[in-house]
Amino acid sequence: MDLLLEAVVTGVLLGCFYAAVSIGLSVSFGLLDVPQVAHPAFLVMASYGVFFLNDTYDIDPLLSGVLITPLLFVFGLLAYRLYYETFERRGTDAAVRGIAFFFGVAFIIEVLLIMYFGVDQHSVSASYIGRSWRFGGMRIPLRLMVAFGVATGLTLLLSVYLSRTFMGRAIRAVAQDEEAVRLMGANPVHIKQWAFGIATAVLGVAGALLIIVSPVDPTLDRAYIGRTFCVVVMAGLGSMTGTLIAAIILGVAETIVLTLFGASWAPAISFALLLGVLAVRPQGLLGRR
Amino acid sequence: MKRNAIAFWGASVLFLAAILLSAELVANEYWFFAGYVILQFIVLSVAWTILGGYAGYVNFGTSAFFGVGVYTAVFLVSAVGAPLPVQIAIAAVVGAILGFAVGLLTLRMQGIFFSIATIAITIIIETAVTNWRELGGAAGIQIQRPPVTAPFHTYVQMLVFVQAVLVVISVAIARYMQNSWIGRGLQALRDDELAAECTGVPTLRLKLIACVISGALMCAAGAPAAMYLQYADPASAFNLNYSVSVLAMALIGGTAHWIGPVIGAILLGVTQQVLTVTISSEVNVLVLGVMLVLFVVGAPEGIIGLFKRRRPEGKA
Amino acid sequence: MKRRTFLGAAITGIGVSLIGKAGADQPPIKIGMSMPLTGGLAGGGKPSLLGIEIWRDDINAKGGMLGRKVELVVYDDKSSAAESPAIYSKLLDIDKVDLLFAPYGTVPTAPIMPLVKQRGMVLIGNFSFQVNSKIHHDMWFNNAPWGPADAWASAFLDIGQKAGGKTMALLSADQEFAQNLAKTAREVAGKRNLPIVFDQAYPPNTVEFSSIIRALSAAKPDIVYVASYPPDSAGILRAVSEIGVGDNVKLFGGGMVGLQFGPVMAKMGSLLNGVVNFNTWLPEPGMYYDGTKAFFDEYSKRAVPAKVDPLGFYLAPFGYASGQLIAAAVTATKSLDQKAIAKYLHESEVKTIVGPIAFSADGERKETATLQAQFQGIVDNNIDQFKKPGKQVILFPEKLKSGNLITPFEAARK
């Protein structure tokens, strides 16, 4: 019983971490309908940025994540521009070739990371890595607590941004009815570009969490394609709090299987959940259409 | 139409005869090793095009079907010592069933949802095989080839011929589908699924047919790989690189016509083989990604699209 | 990458000019191999290749073999089983190499065994595990110090049982090498009636190990045998230091791949303390043979610009030893005849920089030389500390023993 309780606690914390790495995708794919399969590759790239700053200048990983955020924002703006000009504007077939495009981009990022940083795994050092907190008889890794705090903060921030600010509301409006926004005289492409920039920018902190929680190697993105899309689809596309909840469900499910049923079946969990959701509700658990 | 058919089958017979003859004339085995890999990719990308090109469903799960083909063969060899044709035939049946199951499961998924579902299926199957200790599990399994039968001198020559037969079969099927009501129906489905359904195209049935045929061909292409490698491990058999390569080959060649994936597979397959033995570094992998992105951005209809633009009436 | 090619070319150039008089009109002896230079095994493939390249430069500086220069033909197999058969076929049929080395690792090696056997070629193995047990190629010689299949687990469990261990836990990665280790560990434990109270295989890409470690420590084992891969080894040790494995654990480690690589060890720092793990070479007294020191001096110089493991204890000297094995056989038999080379290697003991090597009939080492060593007194963020003796104290084999086990595990971590 103790084991189960501990599994649930770890699962919740792990789930928060999954939420942090998925929330960008929740914006780009969930709200904007961009088939962003390169999201995990962007994430790993951000982790390497954090590693670089931590390794050469000894900057705290979370701070490094904040520092690279503007760079990622610009990168996101450019990536969306390229995607828009080559696919969305031409209309037909955007989905098929858009997926292939981002798939190719992910592949290129992977190889460039290998060429620059080498194939070895890298990790960062910080005071909160390798320590734990005691709660009664339970010991909880401090780095997971950090992930928990950052993830809830990020979710809150994005929810508030999307519901309270002018630009945030505009993004939601574009997601709901692009044509209407156009008729109102706003340029939906600019709004979507801005939103995509934000979706990429949050990867700065998410990438920092990724490398804080576990070491990173260039091909790690493959492991996160399933997890991130699973979370976003389960969440109901575009819902920030939904993302947090779905991620926690995934984290708890994975940890319970890992602890109680045998670890070797764990990778199938996220995908089985995802398939289940997709089969029952093809547009996601709380799908919009 | 008639003349086209005669030309096609004539060319197919010539192609197979040439492969048979090369077993006599070419002493150097490397060409067979390299040729096998390229032929295998032709079958895979033609099979991919049936679903991904004609119907517009982007399948990321090529490696799932390929790996299931490999492991079907491994199972048949280690359990009952089945001969190669039986391995391939049963792999095709298994592939058809798997394709049907995938089709049913993803019946109403569209666009990227379908693609993500295929990734999910790949990982689930890979996990299942990894946990199947009798087939070696994660440690992999070594299998022995039976002695080769005449007229071939080595087993690899025979595998090349077998794979060439599969190429002819897959191209013939793709060609038939393209020119029949199935192909037209799939095209309607690809352009606008809702409209197609409203005008009476049996979209769900067509999609299932495409899934079944594509799956059967992919598994059949994977089956001889067990004998080619004489070793199978889940990480190699279900490698995501198969999915990426096949997707790239089909899109680079062009997916509107069966010749597209054939051209793409030959072009990219040869490039990969050449790069492996020349540059031999990360650049090798980079080329694949860059080519994919460049073609998707610059030549949306692939190589055959470039060709068609110059010759507007060019229809085979 | 570029710089390394340049360096390689420059060194080859020097080699050519040095042996110019010896064999100007003789064609070089070509040694062919594939090597995982990209993909999951590349972290090992690169230092291994560097070791072989250093051997090539050394032997060419001495005039080559049989008065002929040695040339390496190397292709990247991307760590995949699907790539290596075509590569070896090219090496044999197009490049017409005279001798073959195997790629690093079991996965790319397994599919080439039948081809190599069929062609009757000698194959110097490179750290693959039990790859010849089914094929029975009598010209296979593995450079790795594994020895008999069960030696590894036996050595570790010996240490554990001597320290008073009565039960064992087994945690293994669901990947090829680790599963082979786990299998032999189960067999050895079965023979010794050592109960296995926890036995789990975890999947690749597991993010968080704290729940697994909790389940493990709940089983209260005395000996914890871990067979893991580089990314996980770090994750497991982190979780162990955060969660703890319990006071009854006397021995922890055994088969953790990754803790042999310099950058990983430097990053892990004090987390390593107390872990007893396998290794192949360590800078302890008794490990230095003729040429060992010179090799590592050269290696340190070349590793950094080539962006490979700056320590290179695990694989690089064995790559060099592969060359020494083949050189000894070729020089003694004065030929490139494969049968003669195989006969020589079966019958003779060859002196190498990793000690004398003798093979049993199946082409594995006669005796295991796999070390079990305990990390002691490691501090954080210092890669140079690992070059000094006393940081990884050898507990097995007996004749190389350089210190004593600190037990229980938690005590060794203070």
Describe the overall structure.
The complex is a heterotrimer of chains A (289), B (316) and C (414). With 289 residues, chain A is mostly helical. Chain A has a single domain, classed as ABC transporter involved in vitamin B12 uptake, BtuC, CATH 1.10.3470. Chain A contains twelve helices and two strands. Chain A has helices at residues 2-31, 39-57, 61-88, 94-117, 142-164, 166-176, 178-183, 188-201, 203-213, 221-235, 240-261, 266-280; strands spanning 132-135, 138-141. The longest helix of chain A has 30 residues, at 2-31. The termini of chain A are far apart. Chain B has one domain (9-310): ABC transporter involved in vitamin B12 uptake, BtuC (Orthogonal Bundle), CATH 1.10.3470. Chain B starts with a helix and ends in a 6-residue tail after the last helix. In chain C, α9 links the parallel β8 and β9. Chain C is α/β, with parallel strands linked by helices. The model of chain C is unreliable at 1-23 (pLDDT under 50). The interface between A and C is large, with 44 and 43 residues.
Q: Any key phrases for this structure?
A:
heterotrimer, B: 316 residues, mainly alpha, ABC transporter involved in vitamin B12 uptake, BtuC, two-stranded antiparallel sheet, 77% helix, C: 414 residues, alpha/beta, 5-stranded parallel sheet, 14 helices, globular, disordered N terminus
Ordered list of secondary-structure elements with their pairings:
The complex is a heterotrimer of chains A (289), B (316) and C (414).
Chain A: H1 2-31, H2 39-57, H3 61-88, H4 94-117, E1 132-135, E2 138-141, H5 142-164, H6 166-176, H7 178-183, H8 188-201, H9 203-213, H10 221-235, H11 240-261, H12 266-280
Antiparallel strand pairs in A: 1-2
Helix pairs in contact in A: 1-5, 1-8, 1-9, 1-10, 1-11, 2-3, 2-4, 2-9, 2-10, 3-8, 3-9, 5-6, 5-9, 5-11, 6-8, 10-11, 10-12, 11-12
Chain B: H1 2-25, H2 30-54, H3 62-80, H4 84-105, H5 111-130, E1 141-142, H6 155-179, H7 181-191, H8 193-198, H9 203-229, E2 231-232, H10 234-237, H11 240-253, H12 259-277, H13 282-298, H14 302-310
Antiparallel strand pairs in B: 1-2
Chain C: H1 2-19, E1 29-35, H2 42-61, E2 70-76, H3 84-93, E3 99-104, H4 106-109, H5 113-118, E4 123-126, E5 140-142, H6 151-162, E6 168-173, H7 176-191, E7 196-202, H8 210-218, E8 223-228, H9 230-243, E9 251-256, H10 262-268, E10 276-279, H11 292-303, H12 316-333, H13 338-347, E11 350-352, E12 355-357, E13 371-375, E14 392-396, H14 409-412
Parallel strand pairs in C: 1-2, 1-3, 3-4, 4-5, 6-7, 6-8, 8-9, 9-10
Antiparallel strand pairs in C: 10-13, 11-12, 13-14
Helix pairs in contact in C: 1-2, 2-11, 2-12, 6-7, 12-13
